[in-house]
Every structure is written in structure tokens, then in C-alpha cells.
Write a structure and sequence with these properties.
heterodimer, B: mainly beta, 7-stranded mixed beta sheet, 12 strands
């Protein structure tokens, strides 16, 4: 079966760095997505990785290792507004998205 | 600046009622999707559509149907609502059906079935 694993909840301090991991087992691979979802709001696109390595976009970076079935989202200089759920999703060989349950990130002052 | 609009944010319905959830996008996207989001689970795809009058079943289509009469509008229909359909329903759209298929989501419709 297809599976995406990510931690249920993480806590970090304002101004710090946090890494949210995502491991996957899917039928084929056509890219990995990270979305951010604030409570009661729509998920919004953060990043897309299809090749191994690190993609940096401002305070957020996303890393992919296809051989290990592993990705992480790195958030630097955390701000209170980064409190949200972070959703990992993998596009399989049929171009269908398989979603993780999301990681709720709590930022403390 | 709203791009995907879901007509109802909150609905309360009774078991057996027919429920319509409307979704409209203004980005001229070909693809539209309906997901449900439940605590502790990943998003689950109910139905999707790659073109007008076209629909495909997702992972959990039972108890649901959809309609896409116009490119910008994708409706989800619960013919006879049941309590296990209490959930958050998310509509999404995207431009292409391969490659980096970035989804734009609506804010969601939270349905409670009593």
C-alpha cells in the first residue's frame, strides 16, 4: 500500500529553526509537495521537489532524497505566524496525490 | 483576491437530506477536485474532473456524486447525507494534469450531519 508518514505535532520557539520530516512509500514518484494550512483556512502551496537536493525559498527550504523515500521542510527564523499544519503529499506514478496526515506546528514565544 | 470559492463555510444537515456543496474557480483551470479532510487522516480524494462534463472517481466516491456543467464550477452532491459524512470538504483546482500539479484550494466547507 501507499503511505506517507509525518509527525503529528511539533513545538518550537520563536526565532528558532525547525525541521519537519516526511517519509513515503508510494507506487512510483513524480514529485513531493509541501503545503501550509492555518487553522480554518485553505492549504496553500509551499514547495515542490522532484529531484534530490535542497530547494530554498526565503525562510523555508525543502529537501528530497528519492533513494531514501524522505523529505524534510526546514523553517528558519520562526515567527508566530508560522503556527500551522504542514502537509506533505507525494505524486505517484499515476499522477495522483497521496497525502500525509499533516504536522501541527506550535510556535511558542 | 479569492480564486477558489466554496459557497458555504458551515452547514448543518439532518440524516437523509440531500446536500449540495458548490465550488467556483476564477483561474480558468481545467482540473477540479473534491477532498474531505478528517482529523488524523491525510486528505482523501472523493471525485475529480479534468474537463467540463467529465468526472472520475477518487479514493472514496461512495455516497457522493459530482456535477461539472461549466468549466469554473464543480459541485459535490450528497444524495442522502449520513453521520459518517460529517467532515471538512475542500475543493481545489489546478492548471495541468501532469508534472508539478500545484493545487489551489478553497477555504473549505464544514458539514455536520445530525
Amino acid at each position: 500500500g501507499q503511505n506517507i508518514d509525518q509527525p503529528t505535532e511539533m513545538t518550537a520557539t520563536e526565532g528558532a529553526i525547525v525541521q519537519i520530516n516526511c517519509t513515503y512509500q508510494t507506487s512510483g514518484f513524480n514529485g513531493l509537495f509541501w503545503y501550509q494550512q492555518h487553522a480554518g483556512e485553505a492549504p496553500t502551496f509551499l514547495s515542490y521537489n522532484v529531484l534530490d537536493g535542497l530547494e530554498e525559498k526565503g525562510r523555508f527550504s525543502s529537501f528530497l532524497s528519492r533513494s531514501k523515500g524522505y523529505s524534510y521542510l526546514l523553517l528558519k527564523e520562526l515567527q508566530m505566524k508560522d503556527s500551522a499544519s504542514y502537509l506533505c503529499a507525494v505524486m505517484d506514478s499515476n499522477y495522483q496525490l497521496i497525502w500525509g496526515a499533516g504536522t501541527k506546528l506550535i510556535i511558542k514565544p | 483576491d479569492v480564486k477558489v470559492t466554496q459557497s458555504s463555510r458551515y452547514l448543518v444537515k439532518r440524516t437523509g437530506e440531500k446536500v449540495f456543496l458548490e465550488c467556483v474557480q476564477d483561474m480558468d483551470h481545467e482540473n477540479m477536485f473534491w477532498y474531505r479532510q478528517d482529523p488524523g487522516l491525510g486528505l482523501r480524494l472523493i471525485y475529480f474532473s479534468y474537463d467540463v462534463k467529465m468526472k472520475e472517481k477518487g479514493d472514496i466516491p461512495e455516497g457522493y456524486s459530482v456535477s461539472r456543467e461549466k468549466k469554473e464550477r464543480f459541485s459535490l452532491i450528497l444524495e442522502s447525507a449520513s453521520t459518517n459524512q460529517t467532515s471538512m470538504y475542500l475543493c481545489a483546482s489546478s492548471y495541468s494534469n501532469s508534472g508539478a500539479n500545484v493545487l489551489t484550494f478553497g477555504a473549505g466547507s464544514r458539514l455536520t450531519v445530525l
